[in-house]
Amino acid sequence: MEVLLQLELEEEEKQAFQDLILLCNREDGTNYDSGLDYDFFYSIRNEEKKESGIKEEYLALLMGYKLGEQEEGQDILLCTAFVHPSMRGQGLFTMCMECLYDDFRGKKIRLMRKEKDEHFLHFPYIYTEYFLEKTLERPIAFPGERRGYPYGEVFFSPYNEKTLYLYGLMVENRFRGQGKGEEILRDCLDRGEAGVYQKVILQVDSRNRAAMRLYTKMGFQIKDLLSYYRGERKRKRDGKNI
């Protein structure tokens, strides 16, 4: 089997990649986006359909993009991968990763998955991004893009006709630990002017434990998550992985 690197896709290839992603979603109960908004694609084509007994055009897909930040002075590539359910455990993912390492030397690799595992295969866990949602006791009006207080500020934007996106909550250092974050949220969400917004969503990094505690206390629930792992090549000793 050969791993192919592509920077641009033809329409037929896009459809075949989307078919593989949707197949994996159905098999795994996940909801990965099939939009293919990535900078590069590694794939393994199903060249011997009669031999494999698989009808799909591709057996494996690894795709990624430059994250726009650096770690230790090196660019970070964020990647995610899909392997046909009938071909898992046969080294296809490893083949794609080896090509990625060779082609992008000097880059930091992060792998993204919709699960949390302290070690995804042999890759070290970094953190999880949680997507939280809260259904309000009563619908409220738009609180404004920025709402300021003597001890902090909060930022909102409309997500859709009935949902608000809370994209920032800041409490000044000297007021932290005094319940001011909760006070801000209760003022906006519990005592806000009546309106059409029934839900509030937000994203929070698992490393921000104080924020997780606050939002959980306020009734936000986890609706989705993305976990990130450090894509490190296995060290070798005497030609063998260790």
Q: How helix-rich are the residues, as a percent range?
A: 10-25%
Q: How many individual β-strands?
A: 14
Low-confidence runs: none
Proportion of residues in extended strands = 35-45%
Determine and state the CATH class of the largest domain. Alpha Beta
Radius of gyration: 22 Å
List the quaternary state of the chains: single chain
Number of discrete domains: 2
N-to-C span: 25 Å
CATH architecture of the largest domain: 3-Layer(aba) Sandwich
Total DSSP helices = 5
**Biggest beta sheet summary:** 12 strands, mixed
Following the backbone from N to C, one meets helices and strands in this order, namely EHEHEEHEEEEEEHEHEEE
Fourth-tier CATH superfamily name of the largest domain:
Gcn5-related N-acetyltransferase (GNAT)
Mean pLDDT: 93
**Structure class:** alpha+beta
3D shape: elongated
Descriptors:
242 residues; alpha+beta; Aminopeptidase; 2 domains; 5 helices; 22% helix; 43% strand; elongated
Topology (elements, then pairings):
Layout: E1 3-6, H1 11-28, E2 40-45, H2 49-52, E3 58-71, E4 74-83, H3 92-103, E5 108-113, E6 119-120, E7 123-140, E8 146-149, E9 152-160, E10 163-171, H4 180-190, E11 197-205, H5 209-217, E12 221-230, E13 236-237, E14 240-241
Parallel strand pairs: 4-5, 10-11
Antiparallel strand pairs: 1-2, 2-3, 3-4, 5-12, 6-7, 7-11, 7-12, 8-9, 9-10, 13-14
